[in-house]
Amino acid sequence: xxxxxxxxxxxxxxxxxxxxxxxxxxxxxxxxxxxxxxxxxxxxxxxxxxxxxxxxxxxxxxxxxxxxxxxxxxxxxxxxxxxxxxxxxxxxxxxxxxxxxxxxxxxxxxx
Length: 111
Fold this sequence. Notes:
Layout: E1 16-25, E2 28-36, E3 42-53, E4 59-69, H1 73-90, H2 95-104
Antiparallel strand pairs: 1-2, 2-3, 3-4
């Protein structure tokens, strides 16, 4: 995903792409991109991209980006895990969703 980025906290513009993982989720796509600074330090950009229909009928994409730096990985993971656990504890059981999730789990498919 090549874009022009504003300068990040490392003073770099953009950064070199090292690895990218797109995740399609309904109307949204999430991009997990690993980038390298000129000093070969690695950081992650998380981008949410959502397709929109303009008034003239043309499609455009609304994007939101987060820069995640190596020194913040552990705190970020801890916070993310905590809020996911909170949501899962409070959601009522949804058997339809559980069936869909099982169908996506290819480890349970017999060939």
